[in-house]
Amino acid sequence: GKHVELPPVEGIIILNILSWGSGANPWGQEKEDQFSKPNHWDGMLEVVGVTGVVHLGQIQSGLRSAMRIAQGGHIKIHIHSDMPVQVDGEPWIQAPCEVVVLKSALKATMLKKMKGKMKRRNTEPFMAQVAASGSGTSPGLSIAVVSEQGESLNHNNEF
Asked: Where are the domains of the chain?
């Protein structure tokens, strides 16, 4: 990895997509510098800095972009004292530590619509059987599962 000294900033933002804070683009427009053009499939994270609340407002309104600091698939941040941190809208005070952000850990599974018709199963007789057996009256957790052969597999777990 490459050690990067932070410029004088009040905060840093790590982006895995170009949209941030209700649609703002802190990375800004493409320009000639040492950074490659970011996109959502490149396996890279973008790190930018902001100088304060006025700078954040300028980014939101499109007047300025944030300060480009780094790009990489593996970001390690050393926090030397208590500091406010926010991830996806959830704030907390972070004690001194080392934070590692991996692009590979940020992948999400998406659902895709399949072409053609889905095979539907008739579940009404099974649901009547579950209702008659009293499943769901346990103070713990009650799970009803249907096997591929249509057999009822009931599981009750107490927590």
From this structure: 11-73
Number of neighbours of residue 35 by Cβ within 10 angstroms: 15
Residue 93 pairs with which residues in a beta bridge?
Answer: 84
Q: Which residue type occupies 88?
A: D
Whole-angstrom distance, CA of residue 80 vs CA of residue 38: 29
Tokens of 136: 């769901």
Rounded to 5 degrees, φ, ψ at 103 are: -60, -40
Out of 1-15, 30-44, 115-129, least confident range: 115-129
For tokens 């930018």, what's the residue? 48
31 has pLDDT over 70: yes
145-155 burial code (b ≥16 CB/10 A, e <16): eeeeeeeeeee
User: Residue 106 and residue 49: Cα distance in Å, rounded?
Assistant: 21
